[in-house]
Amino acid sequence: MLDVITLHSATLIALGVFLGIVVGAIPGLTATMLIALSLPFTFTMEPIPAISMLVGMYVGGVSGSLITAIVLRIPGTPASVITTLDGFPMAARGEVGRALSLGIYASFVGGIISCGFLVLLSEPLSRAAVKFSKFDYFALVAMALVLIVTLSRGNMIRGLIAGGLGLLAAVPGADPISGSFRFTFGIQYLENGLPMLAVLVGLFAGNQILQEALSMGEAKPKDTEQPQKVRFSPRETLAHWKTLARCSVIGTWVGVLPGVGANVGSALAYGVERSMARDPESFGTGSPQGIVASETANNATVGGALVPLIALGIPGSVVDAILLGALVIHGLQPGPFLFRNSPDMVNAIFSAAVIGNVLMLAMMLLLTPLISRVARVPKSILLPPLILMCVIGTFSISNSWATVVVMLVFAALGFAMERANYPLAPFVIGFVLGPIAEANLRSATMFTDGAILPLVLQPIPLAVMAIIAAMLLVNRRLA
Amino acid sequence: MIRPRTWLQRFAPFDVIAVLLGLAFLVTALRTPPEAYDVIGARGWPLAVALGCLGLLALRLLVARARDEAETDRAGPRFWLFCSANTLFVVILSLKVLPFFVTAAIFSTVNHLLLANTLSAARAVGALAVATVVCFALQALFTGVIYVDL
User: Fold this and answer.
1) ipTM of the complex
2) Which one of A178, A387, A417 has the shortest CB-CB distance to B111?
């Protein structure tokens, strides 16, 4: 499996992991933003090194946030919100090294176990998916969209509207069946559709920069001592082996579910561990078990979320939607046929996830003091270069300033959406999955003269509807 | 006590954008001549989605109790200046009035000063010097190695 990774790819994975950790550690910046921003720069790369680097960023981004969650009480990303509950109290009583050590080793174990599930589950699932009909596929895509809407932040109606707008944004351009141009509004540029990269960079990087610019000047919370001379040991983390095992499984399965992110995974695992603990009252006061539970589960969601992406071509999260876009840009069709048509790419993704976790562990152990210092660099220094990268990155897609304008428009749109509490995830998933859903639905109905009912009353669509109902029930219980 | 809201107050700015987008697609879908090559047709899908969106927006406004979800941070003049500066940055770049690295260095400095909320001349000069070097290196990298026509 690992033989598809050359030294060049391994170097890029290391770069991706490092950038992911640094960006994940900086409050306000996320792995999603980093991956969206890096996509245009992978154009000139070969597909395997490019995707491997992006997977490295994904792994690093989820892990890096624990540093600031523990040291500054500001989770770098939502994935580590739960880690602050016990990480910061432990650090505040002078045990920064212990808290970081627990978090880092737990992240590694969670990530590696979820990679195991990724390897074990993807191929059987993709073999089953090869037999799916067009309408079965449409049902699965619709399920992903509905679940992301219902489980995402904000209320369900707003989520549905955001998802619908994402579907609409994917409409302009060539019709997927006939190839004729539609909904171009008289603008020639739209004949090729909205460029996915510009939309993603705008929504995640541009919008994030605007959000940061708006919140500049807010008071910073107190921090703990600098983690300069800390010694990391895996012994205490491994002593919590039952927690590691349980939370890895929870995190992986939460990752598999569309739209349920690492933050939900860590919250769920934390809740389960607290309910099973002999001293539940210690949770929230610096409990080592709390740190291990949260960090194991949030890293385990990465491998889990890659399962539906690789096996079905359906992204389980926004980052996966961007990775799906990256695969398409590099001429690959994610989904059941990826195993048959591009086995090297599948192996590269598996390998990058495993190598990424190993490198993440090494870098976090070696560079945590440095990274915690980088995370304190003022935003007034960090943001101007990011703006430049947004502009250059989107311009490089087609050497056209119109693409940069699209990025700016979607940055403004994303900003307006978040200000009005419309979740971005359904928009992106709608935008990415819209063409797949439309093409499959229209192809399926061509065989039934437009009748939908005979298509719905098939085993897989019925099962999908049952899963949606079950998920909605589970979601209500969790809420 | 939460005071009852008027219809107008239930609208967030994004609701207006969403309504306009939905209407644009709806009108375009209705004006598209029907296609005969398949059952749903070229306009069926967008029409269904646009109608769905507009229906949901109407529903959202009906069930909206108050603007409880309204934004907490107010966008001040500095934020709008930041937005205007970056829009101007892209306009100037597209017109190619100045070499890329010069425009980029100037606007990076402006962004830095706006974000740091300072008008210190010494800081501006220092930032401009650093930005010029960084932007020149970026231009050399992207035009020379990645072949981006900046």
Assistant:
1) 0.80
2) A387
